[in-house]
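Re: duplicated header lines in exported structure tokens

Our pipeline writes sequence and tokens for each protein into one text file. With two proteins the header for the second block appears twice in some exports. Here is an export where it did not happen, for reference. First protein block:
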Amino acid sequence: MPEYDFAILNMLDRNRRGLTTRKYFLDRLAPVFFSPRVEHLIHLKDLGFRGCNVFFPLGPDNWKQMESDQRGFMWKKSESIMQDFAVGNMAADRRLKMSLQTGEAKFPLLFGDNFIKALAAVMVKHALERKTINKLIMVGKMAELFPLVDHLGGYGLPVSVQNQCPARDEAIAWRLLYDKGWAVSNSYISPENWMQGDLIILFQPGYKRLAMAAPGAFWLELNDEGHNLAPSLENELVRVGMDNHLSMLAPILESILYTKAGISGNNVEINGLEFVPEIKNGADLETLIEAGEQLGLWEPFRQGWS
């Protein structure tokens, strides 16, 4: 049996219907008919890593409908699969973050959040080396993006973080502006002001058309709908019949990054249902970036966005 580097968990995109999915029957039949199983074997040839796809043949609402004891059985079966494949953590489809109950998995469950921030930093540097960028615009929540904003502030470019509720993050923006001198602002999403020379990074879905319509601006979609970012890797997921958006790719690569960089459940903090490294500032993010560089994780993305 070859060595495996990751396992990625996903469910059905839709919920099962019919008599067997009523709660009474679901709790009794799930361990028999809907138990987790290895659905696909994945080989990311460009990177030299292999993994397996752990599939729950249920939809997100079916999962939430089950009794906690039955979900616990499913997690134990998943952990047994992890042991069979000798992997120390489980990547999970980012679209399941709202469906999986906090604390039920007793092993590291990774959704790719920190990988995406590290990828954004790498791609900003890549863009600055090849294009004339006057301003960085990030559509997302300041609190979640703080390590990235802290890292990017060192480039000396204006950074505008835009979201639907900027008031809650004003203190963070002031801290970066006055404590560190970074040219950081926080405002409502304002596509009417996106213009030539802006690099727009979309961490929230729903704004791609607006970014594409901004005259002379560059854009990068790093949310669950992100696609065509690293075609060589995405094609390997398609080849085995899996979704190839960033919602799947980011958790897989985060799992590889943590495993190969020696980050495990013993040196991370538990944040909700995730076991995540303590990425608190730009310096911490730089550690992930360097580890990814050594593993060659960033090159497929650089090649995909010339």
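Second protein block, exported in the same file:
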Amino acid sequence: MLRGKISDVQASFWVELSVFIKLNAIFVLLPVIFYVLKWVTTQHSQMYADYNAIQFSDLIWNAFQILPAFFKAVHDLLAVAFFGSSTKGLVIAFVISYFLLILAFQGRELLLRGIGKSIVLACMGIVFGCFAILPYVLVGKPPILTSYYEGRHILPGLPAVLIFLLGCISAGLALVRHDRVRVQAGYVLISCLFASFSMTSMFIGADVWRDWIRQDAISGYVKKHAKELSDVGTFIMVDRTSGYRVGDRQIWNYEYTGNLIYARGGRGTLGVDVNEYRTWGNNELLFHDGYYRERYNISQYDFSARHVFLEISNGDYHPSLGIVFAISAHSLLGRGWEPDAGKIFDIALHQESRIYPEMMESLRVLSGKLEDYKKNHGYYPLSNRLAQPGSVSLRPDGSIAPIPLSYTDTVGGGADKLIDIPNFNLKPGFVYYSNGQDYKLIYRQAPDYDYAKIAISKNSDLKNSGYGFWTEGAKRW
């Protein structure tokens, strides 16, 4: 008889499951629909091609990371909530939350009394939270609260986090026997929770607005000096601000270029951080890929147009929370704001020095004299007449190089004594190396090297931060 009842239960279960699947087919097919929609709607390009792709090789391992990822997110969220805001702000938010809860619930008990029900509530929060962050974890992008980008992945799970925390608070207060103490403690703890979350959101939002204010100040400056900057192609940003969310933005972030296009119109402009500008390699002009060049506004960008430095630094004061609210309110109402008001920022314009055409012409003349000398004598003039042909000197870093002849050696006509070439005069900063077999003639530590290394990449000398002429054997000197 018992076996018959078990069979009946099993049959009933499968019948009910079948009915549930038929009535909730969309719910059951959600994982399949998610994968198909993701595949169809994903832009098939090189940009973010595999940023959120499901890695099937790591699928099982990532699935086991869901629960630890949820608890780590809760831990980090609480740490940011309670330690990422000012004490004054937390106190004000707590008082407001407390009185709003009192008015809303009239002093009634907010939490569950039974410890069992509280644990169930906390478990529900865990389950819902794990499912909320499941898509991010499966693609290897779990919420990381210390990262601005990955930190956003906790947003779908915030209600679940709140349920979990309420369950934990309720379970803890269920052990308190005194009703009035338990009720008041519930109001206090929930008010603390709401205050910390609200203030954290407010401060993070204020930081985003501050960053926008900084960007808008740059756009405002470019608009204000539109006539003076009309022929500029490259704006090199020297961002010295502190206390703002981001800085040191790269081309692919599009922040600077986007603001400049907004301020000037047209697409013949590029904005680049000075640190990235200095890393542009020799013989390589930004991106060669057509897709990237179009996306980042490089396809219509003219590198030969004038370059200027825009240096932005903190002004007389850092915008407080109240000032941020006032500026954001004006902006949202369409009234705008005056970037120069109150001197929140100091922006200065600097012209980029371009002396390489003149210097390269002088070096070219000297290089021609060196080649003529070799035709007549069979070797290049030594950079140190006391040394033997082919001799070298040891640099402080241990590298080998010929003994150089520099501008200081030629002051007062010394060059004619050291090199038997009429009018072989080196300008300040010029250095000549030669062991007779090879030579290197460069302008060392050139002030416009960052520009010249791209404009005349074949003649740029990375080791000496300069440019000039040399033979193949002296290339690495």
